[in-house]
Each structure stands twice: as structure tokens, then as C-alpha cells.
């Protein structure tokens, strides 16, 4: 694990998301109503919609372009839609958001 | 020979440790006890009952002079320890030095004080010890005194409730969106807030303190948003920090707290630490239960016995008489976790259990917490609950098969004087009476009471009253629920929000029995609109409940870029504006297109450039064209009598006036206007949501046109003589639409439901028109703000940029 400090939790709106650019593509950091943080690929498996611009409800996000709904935890599309997005380890420590980059590099290599 | 034990801090943790130690070994220790407070140990958690007047200080003392004397403890109360010499093994207090064989830190924590201007004024206090409590009691002695409590957690709310009981005017300021956010979910937080408000306490959430002002003492608290709250007393209860300074100075290993191992030993083997001042495996502590465990372990360690401290699950209660809440474990929702939610809106009860792998892992309850300890036991023991899953939420006493929460409960719970039919002023009681008198169908009720006989939006509610009153004798027609989160239709939700004065999202989720914690992408935008349309002053628009375009104030394109469209009032522009648009197009690499709505679209702008291009266009005097909103879009005009040989009135001027009046307002769906100067109708006014055709004798106002998926011609609302009247009717019509239509119904769809007749009837009444205009203007006082100007600031610019760019770092 290599935890990288991305920024303060306050920078992500509650029930909202922010984008992080990486060499392996853009990652969306989501913050739920209960102040949990999830990290997934920011790109919708349908037609590449920006998931960090979706509506966050419960532990799910709805893509802004055509309403695919993803579980933030497993990255699986919900309901009738089929597809999935990558998820990444992330944690909060003393109000800071930490992302594990080792898994990212693994993704980039794969 | 007795061993010398020196204890720093006489609080709840060390008090318990001394009890264990001296009970097991009464003659083995020569104890010196320092305490900065000028008194011995008392039950700190009972300060709240002392504050509220339910207990006296004498009643909460746990160790009196006699207790210390019998055990031969040297008490040095009111004396702070200032330094420690670990080589010489001595402790120095303000009045002298003592030697130790073993030393115990029990310094507790200190309240965190927000370092805002004015935090050090007299009258600004924390809530930690007896002196603070006495200061509050004294301040409340002044008649009409006003207190502001900063912090809506456990301590702050206990302080607020106590001060209120003592007669002060109390306002609680809380930074988060709901009270006690660390222990409660938003639904329970909402109920708690409602409860406190019913006791006369004002609660402001998302309130950030800017400064405290006053001459000789606190007089006023000012918030970041400019709100000013007069205050004679300010209580800061925003959190605690382990008291570690002395330990740090002494050279012990310290993180957030003083590091200890499982035996409560610090980095120095002769020094122990217990209580809120410690850090154990990364955790710090703020409740007494774990401190008592630590005290036991520390005593055992001193006695050379084996013992190890283990962290365990904690539960929370709030000590405010009459407020019943309970929370324990982990209650965040998630994949593989299942929620069981039970809401009884009538009795203000909310229970939520979180289950993972057939085990209960968290519970939040409000209003009825009788089963709290039973649930807590299940959580701690990790009991397999698969057998009792169905009936689990009903508690240990219930073993006879679950009853479902009644979807009609919301309506059944309405009081008799709740207004059901707003048009005809019919209350629930009248409808129930009609039903008891023999009415069995919607038609009967309509005929006898006139309920739902006008605009019809209350039809669903009337049917529910029928169902609730008649039970199985009434067959409910199928109403379309908004989405899977509720059984209620849009119309029901709109009516209930008004009738029951629901003013926040959690209020809607709780009172209307939503089955999900915070809705979904279908219901949240609708409920957000209903709330802001009905309560423009009380409700704050929630950007996170809006689709991307409305949240980012630009239209998202298929490639993730955005389009930017400034307003061109009534389709008019000038060379300056065009130059600024051309410059912006160059600078941000935008494609330029003339739209079907008489203005210019700049396509392909990057998200991070949005605040910049807005700033440039603002500088040339242009504002957002709201091409992305459910709100006023374009007002298409023709050149009118200024230029055209057929023009009868100033159609361009009227269009601009209407656009200036209506822009910025949120509506159920988009609203487009057209104003043509004569019946040749070059502005296509007859296929707009509101279209005006100017004629010699005045203005023909049509409504309900469209030319999108459906093509509709307007129907004539009214003919008026003057421009003022035309504006008045249009504004009143738009407000009526805002107040009644279902989210995502264009006016023509709404008119098909309520009938043009009803709209004409309402608007024909001049007082009604005036009232509608007044409500519209009130809403505009909040919402008619250029979103570009508000966001073209450096702070907002950061929000439009990625939170971090790791592409560079990763390359290293
Ligand atoms: C830019 C523009 C097309 C153009 O290049 O001219 C346009 C572009 C879009 N229209 Fe439109 N409409 C545009 C004029 C129209 C018109 C013509 C008019 O207003 O005179 C109509 C038919 C008239 C009407 O609304 O009755 C029109 C009927 C629609 C509809 C169907 C609405 C309906 O009730 O049936 C939608 C879909 C919707 O709103 O749900 C839509 C939706 C859209 C959206 C917002 C689709 C979307 O959700 O992303 C398009 C955004 C493109 C973009 O990225 O900017 N657009 N759209 C026009 C902008 C006008 C302006 O200055 O604001
Ligand atoms: C109003 C209120 C209500 C609460 N309600 C609850 C509740 O309902 N449930 C619950 O579980 N917990 C509650 N708590 C928390 C609970 O009281 C604390 O967890 C507990 O008191 C901490 O015990 P402690 O011994 O670690 O520290 P303390 O009880 O704070 O004792 C530390 C002592 O050390 C002294 N000291 C510090 N530095 C020095 C020094 N250098 N020299 C000499 N002395 C020093 C301090 O003066 C203090 O007297 C409440 C707290 C407050 C203030
Ligand atoms: S008609 Fe409107 S919504 Fe359809 S592609 Fe053209 S701009 Fe987009
Ligand atoms: S691109 Fe996400 S749903 Fe189509």
C-alpha cells in the first residue's frame, strides 16, 4: 500500500464528488451523506460519462449522461444495466483523504 | 516499604483506578494526587443535570474529603503539575516537588476553542468543569438573557437544553448539515432538531462562526453568511483535545494522545496513563465506559497482575430529559449491508438497523429507544440474527410475525384541521365527516365538500383519506409513485410538503416515510425543487440534488466539455457583447453557434475554464443565459413597432421587461416565452409556454404552447389592454405553475391536468394575482442572482478544477 494524501475531506461536497487526474486515467472521489469516501474510475462504462458529475445517493452514483447507476463499493452497474468501473482503496485520516496508488499502478500496468 | 505513586489529574479515570488499587492493596501505596481543579473527583458527566437544575453539585461528588483522608492520600487540589524529571523521578507542582516510584497521567482533555476573533472575550466559555457550569447558571440568572451555543454535538445540546430550562433564549450553531452527525444519521438528526425546536431552542445547521464581538464581554456572534445573533453568553462545545502538553514536555511518546500499550504503560515503563489523555492503537476516547476499563487495567498493572485493555463497541445517549435517542455501532449504509428502516411519522419514531452477513452491526433510534440495549447486546456479541430477521426491528418482545409500516400512515396521521384541498379550503376533518355520513367514493366527497373539485392536485390525498377512513371498503386507484423510494405520487408529496410544512429533505424522508436514506436521482431533484418553490426563505437549494447542468451552470456535452450561453435580452445584442463573445471564443477555443433561441452558444469549453470565461463575459456586462435550467430560458421577440411597418406595440421592449423580471427563477420544467408585434407572429409566440401577440387594442396572452417532442398551440389565457397588466398576468401564471405543477411537467402538461378554466378562475381575481406576484418576488429575492458572477471567484474556481493532479507525481 502507498497512501497518498489527496486533500482535505472538506473539499469534497457531501453527496458529491471531485475528480483526481492520474496517469491511469481520472478517478472520482465520492463523499456520501454519512461522510464516507469512495474512489472509482471517473469514466462511465456506457459512453464515458463523467461520474464525478453524477448524483450521489446512498452508496451509489447515477451517471449524468444516461442515468446508469453504479455501486460505489463494488463498481458494478445496478439494475438492468451491465458493466462495471474500477474501484480503488481510499481512507480518511484526521480529515485528510488518502488514496492507495499502488493498486492504481497495478491497473496502469495491466 | 510503601511505594510512592503520584497521580496527575483527579478525574473520572484516575478516581476509578485508585478505587481498584487501594481496595486490592490498601497498605502498599503512598499516593499523592494533583488536580488543577480546586476540588477532588466528581461525576463529570452529571454536570448536565446540575446545569439544568435536576441535581446539585453535592449529589455528584464521587470522592469526598473523607474518602481521601481514610486512605491517606495526599491531596494537592488546585495545584497544577508544571514539570517532571524522569531521571530524578520527581514531579513538580506549583507548590513544590515530590518523588515517585510510579507516575500516572490522568489529565483528561481540554475543550477546543475556535480561534475566531473575540473568542477570548469575557462571557465566552467552554463546557468542561464545575466552574463552566456555574458560569452558565449565573449567566442564566439575568432575565431575558440570550445564549449562543456553538456546536450541536452531545455536550453542546446538553448545554443548550440546560440553559433553555433555566429560561434563556438559546440558539445552537452547528457546522454540519444535521445535529450530532457523528452519532446520528440525517433522519434521526432531523427528529432531534424538531424536538429541540419544540422546546424553544433555535437550531441553525451549516452555520459557520466568523467572529464574536462586544465591548466588555460577548455581545454578538456573527456568522460567515452575515447573520448576526445577539448573545450575553457564548458556549463553545466544538470538541475536545487530549491534554498532552505536560507529557510532551516530559519527553513521552505522544500522538493525538499519550501513547500507551495494552497495560496502560507509556513509553516510560514507570509512567502509566489512563483516561481521555491517552491514545491506544490509534484511538482516543471521549466516553467513560472505556476509561473505566482502562482504570481497571492500570490498577492491575501497578499490582503486577496480568491484564490487557481491549477497545469495545460503544453506544451513545443524550442526557436531555424527554429526548430519547440511541446510537451504536456502524450505521453507514453500503454494499452487502442491509438497512431495516421503521418510521412512525405520527409518533416521531425512527429506527434503523444495519445488518451485514446476518449480524447486526449498527443501530440508530429516535423516539423509542426501549430496545436499545438489547440491540447493543446483539451488536457486541455478533449474534446471528437470521432467525429473527423479519421481526428484529420490533425488538425482543415481538415474536409474532412483522407488521409493515402502513404506507397510508402519513395521511392517517394528519390532524383533522390539516388542509387537504387548498383551492376550496377543505380540511381533513370535513372529508372524514362526509365519509362517516355515507360518502364512499371520490365523486361523493367532491360533491359534498368540494374537495378536489377545482385544480385536482389533491385528488390523491382525498383518496388516501378515503382509504384511511374506510379501510378495506375503499379500492385505491393506482397512483404513480415518484420512484422506488416512496409510494407517494408527485402530487401527494407537493401537497404534504405544504400541509405539513416540511422544510428540509430529511423532513420529507422522515415524515413521508421514504424507504431509502436519502432518495435517488429521480426523487431528489423533484423534492429539492418542491422545497425551494414552497419555502424560498427557509429552505436552501441543494446543488447535490441537481443534475450536472444545473449544478455546474453549463450544459454538459457528450465529450465532457461544456457549452456557455450568455443572455441576450429579448434577442438584442450589440457590438461590444459580440466582441467579448468573439474574444472568449478565441481565448477558450470555443465553437460558436447561433441557437434556435436568438442567442449565441459557445461550445466545447473545458470545465476548469468555466469560471474564467464567465468572468470575461461578466466583465462585458453579460450574465448566464440559463440554457441549462428548469427555469426561464429565452424570451423570443420580433423587432416590433420600433422598426416593423406592421408592429402594433413594443414587442421587443415587453420581451426584455419580462425576461428581466423572470430570469433566475426555478420552475418545474423549462419555460420559454415569445412576444410578437402583430398576428403575423414572427416570434413564434403561439408555440411557447407563454406567448404574447400584440394587437392594436392591447395584448393577447396565450399559455401552454410547445414545439419540442409535442407541438402545441397556445390557448388564450386572457386579453389585456396595458403592458403592466400583461406583465402582471404572466408573472402570476408562472408562479401558479411553480406552486402546483409536477416536476418535469411543461405548462401544457400541467394545464391538461388542472384545466385552463381553473387557472383562469384563479388568476381573474386581482388579489390572488397580487398575492402570486408577491410570492414570486419573494422567491426572486433569493434566486435572481447571476450564477456566473457568484462563481467567477478564485475559491469557486478551485472547485471546478480537479481536486488533485497526480499525473506529474506518478511520473517521477
Ligand atoms: C442549443 C439549442 C439548439 C441550437 O443549437 O439551437 C438546444 C440545445 C439543447 N436542447 Fe433544445 N435547444 C435549443 C432550442 C430548442 C427549441 C427551439 C426554441 O426554443 O425556440 C426547442 C423547441 C421549443 C420548445 O422547447 O418547446 C427545444 C426543445 C428541446 C427539448 C424538448 C422539450 C419538450 O418539452 O418537448 C429538450 C429536452 C428537454 O428539455 O427535456 C431539449 C434539450 C436540449 C438540450 C439541453 C439537451 C440536453 O439536455 O443536453 C440541448 C443542449 C445542447 C448543448 O449542449 O448546448 N430541447 N430546444 C437551442 C438553444 C436555445 C437557447 O438559446 O437557449
Ligand atoms: C458536561 C459533560 C457531559 C458528559 N456526558 C457524558 C456522558 O453522558 N457519557 C459519557 O460516557 N461521558 C460523558 N462525558 C465525558 C466524560 O465526562 C469524560 O470522558 C471523563 O470525565 C474523562 O475522564 P478523565 O479522568 O480522563 O478526565 P477528567 O475527568 O477531565 O479529569 C482530568 C483532570 O485532570 C486535571 N488536570 C489536567 N492537567 C493537569 C495538570 N497539569 N496538573 C494537575 N491536574 C491536571 C484536570 O483539571 C481534570 O480535573 C461528559 C463530559 C462533560 C464535560
Ligand atoms: S435536437 Fe436538441 S437535444 Fe436533440 S441533438 Fe439537437 S440539440 Fe441535442
Ligand atoms: S455515459 Fe454514463 S450512462 Fe451513458
- Multimeric state: heterodimer
Roughly what percent helix of chain A?
under 10%
| Quantity of strands of chain B, as a count | 39
- Net shape of chain A: globular
CATH superfamily of chain A: Rieske [2Fe-2S] iron-sulphur domain
Tell me the overall shape of chain B. Answer: elongated
Protein chains sharing the most extensive interface: A-B, 46 and 41 residues
InterPro entries (chain A): Rieske-like_NirD, Rieske_2Fe-2S, Rieske_2Fe-2S_sf
Keywords (chain A): 2Fe-2S, Iron, Iron-sulfur, Metal-binding, Nitrate assimilation, Oxidoreductase
Protein name (chain A): Assimilatory nitrite reductase (NAD(P)H) small subunit
GO molecular function, one term (chain A): nitrite reductase [NAD(P)H] activity
Task: Please specify the SSE layout and strand pairing.
The complex is a heterodimer of chains A (110) and B (812).
Chain A: E1 3-8, E2 16-22, E3 25-31, E4 37-41, E5 55-57, E6 60-62, E7 69-71, E8 87-88, E9 90-93, E10 96-100, H1 101-109
Antiparallel strand pairs in A: 1-10, 2-3, 3-4, 4-8, 5-6, 6-7, 9-10
Chain B: E1 3-8, H1 12-24, E2 29-35, H2 47-52, H3 57-60, H4 65-70, E3 74-77, E4 81-85, E5 90-93, E6 96-99, E7 102-105, E8 109-111, E9 124-126, H5 130-139, E10 146-150, H6 154-165, E11 169-173, H7 186-198, E12 202-204, E13 209-213, E14 220-223, E15 228-230, E16 233-236, E17 240-242, H8 245-249, E18 258-259, E19 271-273, E20 278-279, H9 288-302, E21 315-316, E22 325-329, E23 337-344, E24 349-356, E25 359-366, H10 372-381, H11 409-412, E26 419-421, E27 426-427, H12 428-436, H13 442-449, H14 459-470, H15 490-499, H16 505-511, H17 523-534, H18 548-552, E28 555-556, E29 562-564, H19 575-588, E30 591-594, E31 600-605, H20 610-619, E32 632-637, H21 651-662, E33 671-676, E34 690-695, E35 698-703, E36 706-707, E37 711-712, E38 715-720, H22 723-740, H23 747-754, H24 756-764, H25 766-783, H26 787-791, H27 794-800, E39 804-805, H28 807-811
Parallel strand pairs in B: 1-2, 1-7, 2-3, 7-19, 9-16, 10-11, 10-16, 11-12, 18-20, 32-33, 33-34
Antiparallel strand pairs in B: 4-5, 5-6, 8-17, 13-14, 14-15, 21-22, 22-25, 23-24, 24-25, 26-27, 28-29, 29-31, 30-31, 34-35, 35-38, 36-37
Helix pairs in contact in B: 1-9, 7-16, 12-13, 12-14, 15-17, 21-22, 22-25
Domain Nitrite/sulphite reductase 4Fe-4S (chain B): 630-764
Cofactor (chain B): [4Fe-4S] cluster; FAD; [2Fe-2S] cluster; siroheme
Pathway (chain B): Nitrogen metabolism; nitrate reduction (assimilation)
